[in-house]
Write a structure and sequence with these properties.
This protein has 110 residues and is mainly α. The protein is built from 4 helices and no strands.
Length: 110
């Protein structure tokens, strides 16, 4: 969206990008959390909450893999970094009316 040239002006495009990122990141956190909770609940339902069946079963291995991916995402902080720093920084720059700083806020690593 940032690189598209046709359509709206720079500020309007940046504002719509901010709104989209803000909405998507909130939904992403909800959906990932729901996947983890449903996986754990389903595992407990299948095994009666027995940890002895976790490692030898295919479902247990897949659940551990899913939890490891989720933990990696949290550990790397990519989703949290995006949601808690980049999106608010973009919103603040847009509020100040500085489109160049808004683009830097979205693209810069710091």
């Amino acid at each position: 969206m940032l690189l598209r040239r046709e359509g709206t002006s720079g500020n309007a495009r940046l504002q719509s990008t901010h709104d989209l990122l803000h909405a998507f990141s909130a939904l992403g956190m909800v959906f990932v959390g729901a996947l983890v909770v449903s996986g754990i609940a389903h595992y407990g339902d299948l095994t009666g909450w027995s940890l002895s069946a976790l490692f030898p079963s295919t479902y247990g291995k897949l659940l551990l893999f899913k939890l490891a991916l989720f933990g990696g995402m949290l550990g790397l902080g990519l989703g949290a970094l995006h949601r808690c720093t980049r999106v608010p920084r973009l919103g603040q720059a847009l509020t100040r009316g500085d489109p160049a700083q808004a683009v830097r806020a979205t693209l810069s690593p710091h």
